[in-house]
Design brief:
This is SpoVT-AbrB domain-containing protein. The chain is of the alpha+beta class. The chain is built from 3 helices and 4 strands, in the order ββαββαα.
Protein backbone atom coordinates (compact mmCIF):
# COMPACT_ATOMS: atom_id res chain seq x y z
CA UNK A 1 0.00 0.00 0.00
CA UNK A 2 1.16 3.48 -0.80
CA UNK A 3 1.41 6.34 1.69
CA UNK A 4 -1.01 9.13 0.90
CA UNK A 5 -1.90 12.55 2.28
CA UNK A 6 -5.46 13.05 3.52
CA UNK A 7 -7.27 15.81 5.43
CA UNK A 8 -9.03 15.90 8.75
CA UNK A 9 -12.56 17.28 8.26
CA UNK A 10 -14.94 17.79 11.20
CA UNK A 11 -12.77 15.49 13.32
CA UNK A 12 -12.91 12.69 10.75
CA UNK A 13 -10.06 11.18 8.78
CA UNK A 14 -10.96 9.58 5.47
CA UNK A 15 -8.77 6.60 4.73
CA UNK A 16 -7.63 6.11 1.15
CA UNK A 17 -9.85 3.72 -0.83
CA UNK A 18 -7.32 0.88 -0.91
CA UNK A 19 -7.05 0.95 2.91
CA UNK A 20 -10.83 1.00 3.34
CA UNK A 21 -11.15 -1.98 1.02
CA UNK A 22 -8.33 -4.00 2.61
CA UNK A 23 -9.34 -3.18 6.20
CA UNK A 24 -13.13 -3.38 5.84
CA UNK A 25 -14.61 -4.51 9.16
CA UNK A 26 -11.20 -4.68 10.86
CA UNK A 27 -10.72 -3.69 14.49
CA UNK A 28 -7.97 -1.13 14.94
CA UNK A 29 -5.86 0.28 17.75
CA UNK A 30 -5.37 4.05 17.57
CA UNK A 31 -2.83 6.03 19.56
CA UNK A 32 -1.47 9.51 19.19
CA UNK A 33 1.45 11.54 20.39
CA UNK A 34 2.33 15.10 19.39
CA UNK A 35 2.12 15.20 15.57
CA UNK A 36 1.72 11.45 14.99
CA UNK A 37 -1.30 9.16 14.88
CA UNK A 38 -0.75 5.42 14.72
CA UNK A 39 -3.51 3.18 13.38
CA UNK A 40 -2.77 -0.53 13.72
CA UNK A 41 -4.94 -3.48 12.78
CA UNK A 42 -5.74 -5.69 15.75
CA UNK A 43 -6.03 -9.39 15.07
CA UNK A 44 -7.44 -11.90 17.52
CA UNK A 45 -4.83 -14.29 18.86
CA UNK A 46 -5.30 -18.04 18.89
CA UNK A 47 -5.29 -19.81 22.24
CA UNK A 48 -1.72 -21.04 21.73
CA UNK A 49 -0.56 -17.52 20.81
CA UNK A 50 -2.19 -16.10 23.95
CA UNK A 51 -0.61 -18.83 26.06
CA UNK A 52 2.84 -17.95 24.68
CA UNK A 53 2.26 -14.26 25.49
CA UNK A 54 1.10 -15.06 29.03
CA UNK A 55 4.18 -17.23 29.57
CA UNK A 56 6.43 -14.36 28.46
CA UNK A 57 4.70 -12.02 30.91
CA UNK A 58 4.81 -14.66 33.65
CA UNK A 59 8.59 -14.95 33.34
CA UNK A 60 8.89 -11.26 34.20
CA UNK A 61 6.89 -11.58 37.43
CA UNK A 62 9.06 -12.30 40.46
CA UNK A 63 8.18 -13.91 43.77
CA UNK A 64 8.62 -10.48 45.36
CA UNK A 65 6.05 -9.03 42.91
CA UNK A 66 3.52 -11.69 43.97
CA UNK A 67 4.18 -11.10 47.67
CA UNK A 68 3.75 -7.33 47.23
CA UNK A 69 0.49 -7.85 45.32
CA UNK A 70 -0.86 -10.11 48.06
CA UNK A 71 0.08 -7.58 50.75
CA UNK A 72 -1.58 -4.79 48.77
CA UNK A 73 -4.77 -6.83 48.32
CA UNK A 74 -4.90 -7.67 52.02
CA UNK A 75 -4.52 -3.98 52.95
CA UNK A 76 -7.30 -3.01 50.53
CA UNK A 77 -9.59 -5.73 51.89
CA UNK A 78 -8.93 -4.56 55.46
CA UNK A 79 -9.91 -0.98 54.54
CA UNK A 80 -13.46 -2.07 53.67
Amino acid sequence: MVAQITKVKNGNITLPKEFRKAWKGAEVFISGEKDTILIKRVKALSFSQMLREFRKIGKKITKKDVEEAISWAKRKAAEK
